[in-house]
Amino acid sequence: MTYTMKTFHLSFSLFALLFIFGANTQEVHAQSRQKVEKIKQDAKTAKAEFLESDWRMEKHFKNAYGYVIFPNVGKGAIGIGGAAGNGVAYEGGKEIGMAKLTQLSIGFQWGGQAYREIIFFEDEDAMDRFKQN
After folding, report:
1. What average pLDDT score do residues 94-108 get?
2. For all residues of the chain together, what is the average pLDDT?
3. Is 28 exposed, middle or buried (0-12, 13-18, 19+ CB in 10 A)?
4. Mean pLDDT (whole number) for 107-127
5. Which of 2, 39, 114, 118 gives a 20 to 30 Å CA spacing to 12?
6. pLDDT band, residue 80 (cuts 50/70/90)
């Protein structure tokens, strides 16, 4: 591969990364109040739908020290992939704040998907590690 081709591939890869993540550079705390309220409502809906589809999840919600619900995570890739979503953090069953999920992956991949995700924290130490990051 010539120097020009290497430069082109590097430039294209950097452009692709910027394109994938450029639209998602706004921090959670800088979001509009309306968007935050929508995320909170979507998280409540997602929890209800998780419990409706599998009633046994109730014990996880009751026994967890805390949890985070990401009601809509978007994932897409063309060689280089990324995923991002915003969610709501709960401790002791009470809302304590907003959370942001991001992911970068490299390898053979193509396409996109949207999904919901819950992360349960077993104890205070696990929840504190999450809050610090």
Report:
1. 91
2. 81
3. middle
4. 91
5. 114
6. confident
What burial class does residue 101 get, using C-beta atoms within 10 Å of its C-beta: 0-12 exposed, 13-18 middle, 19+ buried?
Answer: middle
CB neighbour burial string for 69-95, b if at least 16 within 10 angstroms, e if fewer? bbbbbebbbeebbbbbbbbbbbbeeee
The partner residues of 110 in beta bridges, in order of sequence, read 78
In a domain, 79, yes or no: yes
In a domain, 36, yes or no: yes
Give the range of the structural domain holding residue 100, as residue numbers without chain letter: 26-132
End-to-end Cα, the chain, rounded Å: 41
Examine residue 72 and state whether it is found in any structural domain, yes or no: yes
